[in-house]
C-alpha cells in the first residue's frame, strides 16, 4: 500500500533544476559528503588493474595496489598532467604518462627519472592526493570528503545482508552508462515512481503494479519499494530458472531502494543492480549501472546452458528499460524550464515528494507544509479541484465544433 492516500505538492521550483547557484549548493551539501559507487571489485581483481573517471569535475584514478584498492586524484604533482587518460587498464606500476614519475600506494614517490635534478627534495608537495575508498560486498565506493561519515553509516538504512547480494551465485554481467541533457533529479524522480510504466515501458513492464501488492517505505535518508512480481510467462520462467540454477531462494519479489541523494539498489530473484546518477552540470548528468545476474558457480553443463541465455535476456531487458526511461528525460527538462505550473504528485509518486523534501532540507531551504491543501513553496496558487475534473481552472474548456 501507499503511505499517502491523497495527492501531494511539488516541493521544488523550476530553478532547482536549472540554477547554477543551486547546483553548486547541491554539490557541496548533497554530494561532497556522500559515498559514490564507482566500480565492481571484479573490475579491479588483479594487482595493477585500474580505472579512471570524473566525479563532479574531479579526475579520479582507482587502482589495485598489491591487493589493496587505492583512490587518487588523477593529477601528477610534478607538472599537473593526468597520470593516465585510459578509462581502464593494467600496468605494473602507478606511473605518470608525462615524465614517468612512479608512486607507491601511500601516494609517495617510488621512482623519479633523474631525481638528482630535483634537489633539495620537496617531499610534502610531491605526494599524490588520496581519497577514501571502501567496499560493500562486491561494490566499490569512493568519498571525496575526509570528514564525511563512514560508508557503513551512509548505507545504514540498508541491512548488511544487502552487501552480500552482489556476491556469488550472482556475478557481474554488464556495466553501462549514458549522458543525459537533464538535471540529475529528473532521472532520480523518474526512477522513484511506477506511474510512467504504461507509457514508457509497454513492452517490458507493460503496466503499473497494483497498489495492493506495493509497499512504500519513506525515511529521512532513503525510500524503498517492494512489490510482487507478476506471475505471467516471464515470471514463471524466472521462478523455474532460479530453481534449476540453485543457490538462491524463489521470493517472487522486486525491491528498489534509493539511498539519498543518488544511489539505487534493485533486486529480483534473477538479478541485482546498482545505479548512480552523477550531475555533470546544472542541466546535464551521467547515469551509471552495474548489472549482476544469477550464475551458479558449480560446474554443471546443464546449468551453464541455462545461465548463459538467462544472462543475455536480463542484460537485454535491463538496457531496454534504461533506454526507455532515457527517452523522456530531455523532454521533462525542457518542460520544467518552460512550465508555469506548480505541479502535483500522486500517491503512487509519493517517493518523489520524500526525495524533494530531502533535497530542500539538506540544501538549507524551507520545506513548508506538505499537506494536500498547502501552497506550493514558490508561492504559486494551489491546484484547484477542477484540475482533476477535466477542466482548467484558468480558462474555458476548448470544444471542437462538429
Describe the 3D structure.
The structure is a single chain. The protein has 402 residues and is α+β, with helices and mostly antiparallel strands. The protein folds into two domains: 1-33 and 159-364, Naphthalene 1,2-dioxygenase Alpha Subunit, Chain A, domain 1; 36-154, 3-layer Sandwich (Rieske Iron-sulfur Protein). The protein is built from seven helices and 19 strands. It has helices at 20-31, 151-154, 184-191, 197-200, 233-245, 301-338, 350-363, and strands spanning 8-9, 36-40, 49-55, 58-65, 68-73, 88-90, 94-95, 102-103, 109-111, 130-136, 139-143, 170-180, 214-218, 222-228, 253-259, 263-268, 271-281, 284-294, 344-345. It has a seven-stranded antiparallel β-sheet, with no helix packed on it. A seven-stranded antiparallel β-sheet has the order 12-18-17-16-15-14-13. Helix 3 (184-191) packs across helix 6 (301-338). It is globular and about 75 Å long. Residues 369-402 have low confidence and may be disordered.
Straight-line distance between termini: 45 Å
Q: What low-confidence regions span 5 or more consecutive residues with pLDDT below 50?
A: 369-402
Given helix and strand content, the structural type is alpha+beta
- Approximate helicity band: 10-25%
Q: How many structural domains can be distinguished in the coordinates?
A: 2
**DSSP strand tally:** 19
CATH superfamily annotation of the largest domain: Naphthalene 1,2-dioxygenase Alpha Subunit, Chain A, domain 1
- CATH topology group of the largest domain: Naphthalene 1,2-dioxygenase Alpha Subunit, Chain A, domain 1
Overall pLDDT, averaged? 88
Strands of the largest sheet, in order across it? Answer: 2-11-10-5-4-3-6
**N-to-C order of helices and strands:** EHEEEEEEEEEEHEHHEEHEEEEHEH
Strand percent estimate: 25-35%
* Overall spatial form: globular
The CATH architecture name of the largest domain reads Alpha-Beta Complex
**Number of distinct helices:** 7
Task: Look at the structure and give the CATH class of the largest domain.
Answer: Alpha Beta
Biggest pleated sheet: 7 strands, antiparallel
Supply Rg.
Answer: 24 Å
Amino acid at each position: 500500500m501507499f503511505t499517502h492516500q491523497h495527492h501531494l505538492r511539488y516541493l521544488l521550483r523550476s530553478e532547482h533544476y536549472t540554477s547554477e547557484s543551486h547546483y553548486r549548493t547541491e554539490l557541496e551539501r548533497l554530494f561532497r559528503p556522500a559515498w559514490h559507487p564507482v566500480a565492481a571489485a571484479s573490475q579491479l581483481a588483479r594487482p595493477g588493474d585500474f580505472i579512471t573517471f570524473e566525479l563532479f569535475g574531479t579526475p579520479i584514478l582507482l587502482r589495485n595496489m598489491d591487493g589493496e584498492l587505492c583512490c587518487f586524484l588523477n593529477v601528477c604533482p610534478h607538472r599537473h598532467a593526468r597520470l593516465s587518460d585510459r578509462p581502464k587498464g593494467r600496468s605494473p606500476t602507478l606511473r605518470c604518462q608525462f615524465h614517468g614519475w612512479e608512486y607507491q600506494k601511500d601516494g609517495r614517490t617510488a621512482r623519479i627519472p633523474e631525481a638528482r635534478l630535483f634537489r633539495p627534495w620537496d617531499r610534502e608537495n610531491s605526494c599524490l592526493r588520496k581519497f577514501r575508498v571502501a567496499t560493500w560486498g562486491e561494490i566499490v565506493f569512493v568519498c571525496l570528503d575526509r570528514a564525511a561519515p563512514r560508508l557503513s553509516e551512509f548505507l545504514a538504512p540498508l541491512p548488511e545482508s544487502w552487501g552480500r547480494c552482489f556476491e556469488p551465485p550472482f556475478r557481474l554481467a554488464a556495466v553501462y552508462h549514458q549522458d543525459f541533457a537533464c538535471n540529475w533529479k529528473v532521472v532520480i524522480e523518474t526512477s522513484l515512481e511506477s506511474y510512467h510504466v504504461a507509457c514508457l515501458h509497454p513492452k517490458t513492464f507493460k503496466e503499473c503494479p497494483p497498489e495492493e501488492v506495493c509497499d512504500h517505505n519513506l525515511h529521512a535518508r532513503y525510500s524503498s519499494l517492494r512489490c510482487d512480481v507478476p506471475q505471467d510467462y516471464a515470471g514463471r520462467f524466472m521462478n523455474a530458472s532460479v530453481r534449476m540454477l540453485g543457490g538462491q531462494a524463489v521470493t517472487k519479489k522486486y525491491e528498489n531502494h534509493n539511498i539519498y541523494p543518488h544511489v539505487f539498489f534493485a533486486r529480483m530473484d534473477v538479478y541485482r543492480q546498482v545505479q548512480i546518477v552523477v550531475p555533470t552540470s546544472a542541466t546535464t548528468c551521467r547515469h551509471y549501472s552495474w548489472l549482476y545476474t544469477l550464475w551458479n558457480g558449480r560446474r554443471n553443463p546443464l546449468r551453464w546452458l541455462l545461465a548463459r541465455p538467462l544472462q543475455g535476456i536480463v542484460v537485454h531487458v535491463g538496457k531496454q528499460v534504461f533506454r526507455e526511461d532515457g527517452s523522456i528525460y530531455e523532454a521533462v527538462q525542457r518542460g520544467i524550464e518552460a512550465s508555469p505550473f506548480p505541479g502535483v504528485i500522486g500517491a503512487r509518486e509519493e517517493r518523489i515528494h520524500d526525495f524533494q523534501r530531502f533535497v530542500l532540507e539538506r540544501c538549507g531551504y524551507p520545506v513548508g507544509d506538505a499537506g494536500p491543501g498547502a501552497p506550493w513553496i514558490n508561492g504559486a496558487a494551489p491546484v484547484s479541484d477542477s484540475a482533476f475534473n477535466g477542466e482548467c481552472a484558468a480558462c474555458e474548456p476548448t470544444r471542437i465544433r462538429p
